[in-house]
Amino acid sequence: MIELVFLLPLVAGLAALALPSGMSRILLLCTALLHLQLTVMSWMGKLTPAFPQFFSASPEGLLILLVTSFIFVCISIYAFSYIEETEVENKPVFNCCMMLFLGTMSMVTLSDHPIVLWIAIEATTLVSAPLIFSHRSTEALEATWKYILICSVGIALALLGCFFITLAMELGNIDAPLTFNSLNTVAAQLDPVWLKAGFIFVVIGFGTKMGLAPMHTWLPDAHSQAPSPASALLSGALLNCAFLGIYKMDVLMNVAGLGEFSGNVLVGFGLLSMIVGAIFIIGQPDYKRMLAYSSIKNMGVIAFGVGIGGFAMYGAFLHLIHHSLIKSSLFLSAGNILLGFGTKKVQRIGGIINSLPKTFVSFFAGFVGISGLPPFGLFISEVIIIIGAFQSKRYISASLFLFGLTLVFAGAGRVFMSMSFGESVEKVQVGEKMLRLIAPYALLLASLTLCVWMPDAIYTAINQAIATIGGTIHG
Amino acid sequence: MINLTEATLVVILLSVLLSLGSTRLMALVQIMALQGVMVSLTPLLLKHNEAFSSGAIIFYQVMILIKGILIPGLLYLAVKRVAIKREIEPFVGYHASILVGLGLILVSVFITNNLRLSLASGNDIVLITAITTMASGLFLMMARRKAITQVIGYLMLENGIYLIGTALTNHTHTIYVVEFGVLLDVLVGVMIMGIILHNISRAFDDVDTTLLGRLKD
């Protein structure tokens, strides 16, 4: 019964509505831990799907499920303290939506039926909208409205893409169940024209959710207005889930022999997202928005890596894992800073090294990590992607990729330096607290550990996920 | 004898044109209710010679209930709450909008003829209607200021996509549980949009989306 992985948080989330806020945050923590346990059990193969026509445990899905589950445990420890200290109206609703969010995201990672996948991704939009609206300000209202409208329209187009895939099946006279697993076995008979059309619509639709430029416009608003634990979840977990939808389609295209087309589309969107992200990071006055644009850039890197294929695909999956860990850690540190100084403006904040020394360590280490410097994992993954790009002789794309990375480093460096060492206008109002520091440290430590020692299970999972379409973990 | 399928589709097309030309929000909600019922009836009419399983009958009943009653009901409540009766100063005028709608019909005919799909007889008209509905939904979202009209545009887009699904596929692959999930998502989506709408009108005393322009770089 692998469905338990998403049924448990869904049920617990609804139960939280009936509990007082003190109880519901304990429930949040317990659900997070139980979810991690169920995830590990499904990694060990102890759980089998009860509805194999809708759900199955694919290696790429399990990988994203594990990342999501681990991040969620850290975030729930953080939220345990954070939510008590901020003005979040209606705390049980916040906790409820956090758990429903976890449930729907787990459903995305396990679904094997294209339309079930669509339902799950649309459901993530719906349950995360109240999270963004938590602060009830007019800005939060605007961000929520944009988020729900832009994402719903985008995802509606992805549904059209799913219908085109069923049409491609009919034109190819295929009588097989509509699941990604069975589609991959009969891919060669699918009608190529409609498969391509379906792919384009799926990339536009789920790309909106993933934050690929030019459909990214909701992302900076939503990430900056949501409370920090929710921003960390949006950036570290939700974007990966949307990527999973695109990846499954890309696998189908590759198996059907249209890999070159789908690869070029992804490389194009990837490079555009990197450049757009980089341009908006330069001179960004709001540090949470800056982190959001950095997410757009990193999603671009992942799309780029998958589009290149081969060795770069291994880099893309490494990038996905490490980006989730480091970016959610950064959003949590940013939450500490926001709580301390009470403003999101870069100019009004300075000297974190003196006023919030423990937060400074995680914030600055996060900066080193997100800029792709050693010893953190994004260094390895970006180098692998560049090697992959050179191996497949895409010199122009590779140089654009490097250009984008440099721009981001320059833009983000200015912000992080002035916040850490500059002069401060505001005074610190709320100090640091142990519970709010464990999570960002644990996430960074996880990224560091995975660089030095990666468990064999994760190696094999990545290898299985990318081997079917010519990806390799040996350069 | 009147061809029921074609009559239904013509009603859908007319409802699209009407919605593009109507100034009153209440009228728009009523048009959406009619369109919802017609859209849910179309697959039934297309498959009139097939036997229906009991699951299918329940599903279509639920669908008419959701598309024809529940969603318009939610919209009705939203319009009542925000106490705004008409759309003032749209980005694109009403006459121009109707003209755009007519243009969209022509374009959809052109697209359908060029696809050269071997569709079952009668399905090409479904496809024309579907593409027009979808495109008009997108147009409505862009051409109007009020947030509530944008929700209606989204619903029209969704109706159009659903019609494309029925026109193109034989429903041998889709399972009713799955379609029910899609429908439920749309329903909850409209519910949440309604709640946010209510909050927008409380915060700004209006549901004009041009007021929502503070967050930018």
Number of DSSP helical runs of chain B = 7
Radius of gyration of chain A: 21 Å
User: Beta fraction of the residues of chain B?
Assistant: under 5%
Order of helical and strand elements of chain A: HHHHHHHHHHHHHHHHHHH
Please, how many domains of chain B? 1
Q: Radius of gyration of chain B in whole Å, from Cα?
A: 18 Å
Number of helices of chain A: 19
Estimate percent helicity of chain A.
over 70%
Run of helices and strands of chain B? HHHHHHH
Q: Runs of chain B with pLDDT <50, length 5+?
A: none
Structural description of this entry:
Chain A: It is a multi-pass membrane protein. Chain A: This is Hydrogenase-4 component F. Chain A: Its main location: membrane. Chain A: Pfam families: Proton_antipo_M. The complex is a heterodimer of chains A (475) and B (217). In chain A, 77% of the residues lie in helices and 0% in strands. Chain A is mainly α and 475 residues long. Chain A has a domain at 270-475. In chain A, helix 1 runs antiparallel to helix 2 (21-43) and helix 12 packs antiparallel against helix 13. Chain B has one domain (4-47, 56-208). Chain B has seven helices and no strands. The longest helix of chain B has 29 residues, at 54-82. In chain B, 43% of the residues are buried. The chains are: A mainly alpha (475), B mainly alpha (217).
Summarize it.
Chain A: It is a multi-pass membrane protein. Chain A: Keywords: Cell membrane, Membrane, Oxidoreductase, Transmembrane, Transmembrane helix. Chain A is mainly α.
